[in-house]
Amino acid sequence: MALTAAALALAGCGGGERQDADDSDGTYRVDVVTAEFPAQQHLADETTLELVVRNESGRTIPNLSATLEAVGSDGTRAAAFSRTDETPGLSSRSRPVWIVDESPGSTAYGDTYATGPVAPDREGRFLWRVAAIVPGRYRLTYRLSGSLGGGAKVVEGDGERASGSFDVDVDRRPAQARVTADGNVERVPASEARR
Prior knowledge:
mainly beta; YtkA-like domain-containing protein; five-stranded mixed β-sheet; about 10% helix; 2 helices
């Protein structure tokens, strides 16, 4: 009976290889080719956050990963695409600002996403599709690493850790849309929506 319970417990843990099994020491030079996230957004408007990273080091990066954090206007740090809420009695202080519809490779680390190995002169691509649900001003930061355990460091040409941020203003007005003559729904450009 005890052996059966232990076998079931291990089966529920996912088994397989550890996500940080390829963690290794070393420094890898990269070029952040693309880092885009719209600075002006509207409620319920689907947007894309994209990072494209080129391996310039001459060696394969074991597991290119990106860690995201949101920084509120008061400087508090929260989980990716979230904000903190100090209301007493909450089971979790983290509250979403964006709903994530699509994300790159999830990991056991809640705010870290991985693309896997990236060969020399190749690119790793991270793509998130999100929709804002809370208006306000936010800063979303990213830090790149060459492995999930942090042993493999990723730096840019100046030798500094590969990282960056996006300042975003989420307007409380929802995104506007219209139905075209052929029955398709299309987004109204911001310039037209303000008329």
